[in-house]
Amino acid sequence: MLKKRLIVAITGASGTIYGIRILEALKNLGIESHLVMSDSAKLTMSAETDYKPSQIEELADVVHSAKNVGASIASGSFKSMGMVIAPCSIRTLSEIASGVTSSLVSRAADVVLKERRRLVLLVRETPLHAGHLRSMIQVTECGAIVMPPVPAFYAKPQSLNDMVNHTVGRCLDLFDLDSKLVARWSGMEGGK
Fold it and tell me: What are the CA-CA distances from residue 72 to residues 141, 152, 158, 175, 190 (Å)?
């Protein structure tokens, strides 16, 4: 039996902590992770966190260069649960939506879609113009799930960490992985 594996990509959009936290959660769940980070992701990471790219790479089971479009994850014969791009830049979203693949991130995503596997995009941009929205519709029609990292306030987060964890947990829910990071909604008392 093959070990469960998930492809994780981190692009240059703000919110690199989402990809980092997903890698940590996958390690805790015993899921094999295949990481690909864009050069822009490494720049954003240095501006947003105290992590070095090498520290993030250590969280992954396998690391692929974003320039290596011949990597294993670029083939439909590579078996995986799918792929999550967290955060997902508008450029990456647009490449996937149009089927134009200029890096391993968009190539691997294209392969995941053609193989009818799950692709989740934590798109990080606001506000959005009509071109962004069209790309979101187009990529959804191709089979991807667009999941902007929007905080759930019903969980009564006490910190940024709580908000990140909740989003990561909900993202992993889409792959039927229970990371125990989600404060589950249990309904309202009295039906009000």
Answer: 26, 36, 41, 21, 53
